[in-house]
Amino acid sequence: MNGETSTHPDRATYLEEKLETLVQQVDEGYGKALLEQLIHRMEITVREFLAEIDLLVERLKDNAAAQEALLGRIKGQDMAGKPIGPGPSVKPEEEIPEWERRLMELETSGK
């Protein structure tokens, strides 16, 4: 084989050839059982890896959605494009000093 393993059957054939060579070097008596056990363990490893990748991709999607929502809130709009009310960092009306209220009124009337 020329080392080309771009397709699944090519990779499987390549691995089988390499494993058979190694197994022949170990012992003919254990060769078949060892080969079957190695293949079984590799399949388990691949399944676990794919499950972990699926979980990570789902987490990335959730994080991206949360970041997008947060960005929308930072821009002053929710995901539907409607303006949202003041965030929790804005003080309630009664806690704002009189001079700040007058300043806000002047700013709004000037617009």
What does this protein structure show overall?
The protein has 111 residues and is mainly alpha-helical. It has a domain at 8-81. The protein is built from three helices and no strands. α1 (8-26) packs across α2 (31-74). The protein is rod-shaped, with a radius of gyration of 32 Å. The N and C termini lie far apart (76 Å). 0% of the residues are buried.
Brief descriptors of the model:
111 residues, rod-shaped, 0% strand, mainly alpha
- Give a short account of the largest sheet: none
What is the helix/strand order?
Answer: HHH
Give the total of beta strands: 0
User: How much helical structure, as a percent, in the residues?
Assistant: 55-70%
What would the average pLDDT be, to the nearest integer?
A: 78
| 3D shape | rod-shaped
| Helix-and-strand structural type | mainly alpha
Instruction: Determine the strand fraction and express it as a percent band.
Output: under 5%
Count of individual helical segments: 3
Question: Alpha-carbon distance between the termini?
Answer: 76 Å
Q: pLDDT below 50 for ≥5 consecutive residues: which ranges?
A: none
Radius of gyration: 32 Å
Task: Map the helices and strands.
Layout: H1 8-26, H2 31-74, H3 98-110
In short:
The chain contains 3 helices and no strands. With 111 residues, it is mainly α. It has a domain at 8-81.
